[in-house]
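Weekend entry, working from home. Most of the wet-lab plans are on hold until the incubator is repaired, so I used the time to fold the two sequences that have been sitting in the queue since the last round of cloning. Logging both here for the record. First:
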Amino acid sequence: MADFLILAEAAHAGAEQHAEATAFGLAPPWYVALSMVALLGIIVYMKVPALVASMLDKKIAGIREMLDDAAKLRAEAEALRQEYTDKIAKLEKDAAVMLDHAGQEAKAIVAKAEVDAANVIARREKIAEDKIAAAERAAVEELRVLAADAAAAAARDLIGANHSADADKALVDQAIGQI
């Protein structure tokens, strides 16, 4: 510290001495202080702090209003989100019910188709059996006709070969006698 004082004295000794300007016995720093006090007095007299406070109050009120609006919007958004969540849950439930109902209808359709197919098969079997029976009856009738024709032809040939006119007369007389 001693070194600093020596240097300060040396610098002070070597420097020129200036006379400091004063007015009314006051140095320049006092004028700056007085002008600041006057400026602050004017600011207070003109009610600048009140104006600044009212501007800040308006700004605060605007921000509060914006916050209130944001809170309302958030509440509305939450309500909409809840509404859509409820709608989605209801739609999922409805979709599950529809899917279940569709499954039941599909089972019923399959069961009905199986019954209908069985009925169609039974009808077609019955029709086929009827056709087969009709064909059998026709074949039997045709065989009877053929057998009767063959028997008549055979009888005609036998009778023609084994009987003469005299034998026929005796058989005719015998048949008449039995009547």
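Second, folded right after the first finished:
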Amino acid sequence: MYTKEFDVRWSDLDANRHMANSAYQNFMSHTRMAFLIDNDFGQREMAQYETGPVIFNENIFYFKEIHQGRPITVSCEVTGMSEDGSLFSFRHNFMIIKGIT
């Protein structure tokens, strides 16, 4: 499983002072792209093959609020892929790093 650590910034918060929906999507997108780049499928390869990731469907299930001031880890796990590799699915989990205030 691939993971990436982030700081939650002031600009990631909504009016209720917890992480905004758009911030979740941005962190997931950043983690997915880092995963692809770290596995040798970056901008050069996307241009070479004239392809790139497209989101067909995205579901978010919230279990706990995330606030500013504690780093988070976002995981990226491939959960399915078509035989030709043209379609695939990812699962992301957000984890608050414990012990840091």
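Plan for Monday: verify the second prediction. The two ends are 26 Å apart (CA to CA).
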